[in-house]
Amino acid sequence: MEPPPAASGGLSAADRNRLQQVFLRAKKCLERADYAYAHDLFSQCVAEDPGSLIYLQHFRANLAQMHPKTAAAKHSAFSGLPGFGGGRAAVSKLADKGNWREAFTAGCKALKKSPGDVGVIAELGGAAGELGHSDCQLYYLRWALDLSPTDLDVNRQAAAALEKIGEFDQAIGCWLRVQQQKPGDEEASRAISRLSVEKTIDRGGYNPQLLKGAGDVAMPHTGRVAEASARRKYDSPDAEREEQPAEPPQAALTEEELRAAIDANPADPAAYVQLAEMFSSAGRLHDAERLYKKALHVAGGGDLELLEKLEEVYLNRKRDTARVAEQRAQRQQSPAAQKLAEQAQREANLAEVEVFSARAERTPGDPRVQFDFAIRLKRVGNFREAVKPFQAARADKKRAAEAELHLGECFQHIEQHRLAMRSYEAAIAICGEGEWTDLRKLALYRAGVLAMGLKDLDAAEKYLTDLASADFGYRDVSARLDKLATIRKTG
Question: Is the same domain home to 190 and 266?
């Protein structure tokens, strides 16, 4: 059994590029209404990278086009039909064995025939949660609740998932729906009481409406501020002020007014951007991300500034989730909470790899972007893949020494010791004689320690002595010099 790359610590660059090509073909199929083939292609993306929210969103959007009536229907209309239920059992059986890719493949196949099967959707959500993909887990559960808002099992599952990421208000909401359907349920009562105590924890940036059905969300009034929106063109925000310098500054629009502006002119990205910025400032990062995506779409998809705003809010959401999990782990001091915190941090790190990989592909000639990408690869332990972008980053003279130092550490991790030594020596040379920066000290230390490991005692003594002459208390440099002296005496 071979787990999907995402379950093993992230996709390789080759797999990521291959899947991206599959995804682009799927989007073209969706655009020309070839929904069945698009479903198969999107299914491949979801199965091989179950942590990609973008792949999952497109998978669901295509499925809604294949079965428009089912997309708007409730689960109760389908639950009694033949064929429903078997798909969930197949997914569950495969997931229990750890056959993750096969489980997601089976689930996607089942939904192609039975798009309203809440059981399959919830089971896929559970599998995403097992792999640590909380964003996708919540998306599956929201999807299931859109179809069946009062489903007891899905609400319980959603409550547990929300509690894990510290979204206690939303978890209470799920338990309240259970209580409404099953008055006197002791589990629901206990959970509501317990979670009420936790409500003071900082929020992690998740949309409070995340797991509510569409019917639960109040819709704004429309058509009130079309002229105000038209004056705030995204492509020229200062144009109006230049033409009419005497006009007093306009008050910031409210959320309701911005929603009305979007309804009045859905092809103008300005209001989407302003509302996204408002949500981002308020910590509603899921909403902000959704609006930046829409703004990017209506702007034609080629606006790099918008794309980077979208990427940043996505990363901030991941970082906030990791922060909340870490705070909870520190408070609870339990192995389970610590494991969740580590998982959230790992997911945040992988999200950074994903984003900076895309940026590096967009600007292959920018050494600063290559450096940022390489740092993220190194952080998640992809030392071999980090070598190439670190080498490209050396073109930035201001960071050349730092890039060489990181490069040496990567080479050392993959046991290319001679190459590692060359990089450490290059870092030392770039820093220059007499410049006792922290970077030069670390490069001397790394070179000395590596030389000891390679049994090159002369080189080890030279580097460590140079370091000790400037900072005798640096790490364990004095002890290493003593050890070198002992080796020479006894050798």
Answer: no
Q: Could you please report the per-residue DSSP string of 228-294?
A: HHHTS-TT-TTHHHHH-TTSPPPPPPPHHHHHHHHHH-TT-HHHHHHHHHHHHHTT-HHHHHHHHHH
Shared domain for 314 and 401, answered yes or no, is no
Both 68 and 204 in one domain: the answer is yes
**Domain annotation covers residue 223:** no
Residue 429, number of CB atoms within 10 A of its CB: 13
Residues 4-25, buried b or exposed e (16+ Cβ, 10 A)? bbbbeebbebeebeebbebbee
> What's the pLDDT at 355?
93
210: pLDDT strictly greater than 80: no
CA distance 137 to 124: 8
CA dist 230 and 208 (Å) reads: 30
- What is the CB neighbour count within 10 angstroms for residue 415? 8
In this structure, what are the phi and psi dihedrals at residue 153, rounded to the nearest 5 degrees? -65, -45
Q: Is residue 229 part of a domain?
A: no
Residues in the chain: 491
**What tens digit of pLDDT does each residue of 324-371 get?**
888 888 888 888 888 888 988 998 999 999 999 999 998 889 999 999
**Pair 95, 47: CB distance under 8 Å:** no
Closest listed residue to residue 103, CA positions, set 3, 234, 233, 208: 3
Q: What pLDDT score was predicted for residue 247?
A: 47
Q: How many other C-beta atoms are found inside a 10 Å radius of the C-beta of residue 487?
A: 14
- How far apart, in whole angstroms, are the C-alpha atoms of residue 234 and residue 230? 9
The domain in which residue 143 lies consists of 5-213
Residue from 139, 131, 133, 129 nearest 161 by CA: 129
CA angle 69, 71, 73 (to 5 degrees): 70
How many distinct structural domains can be found in the chain? 3
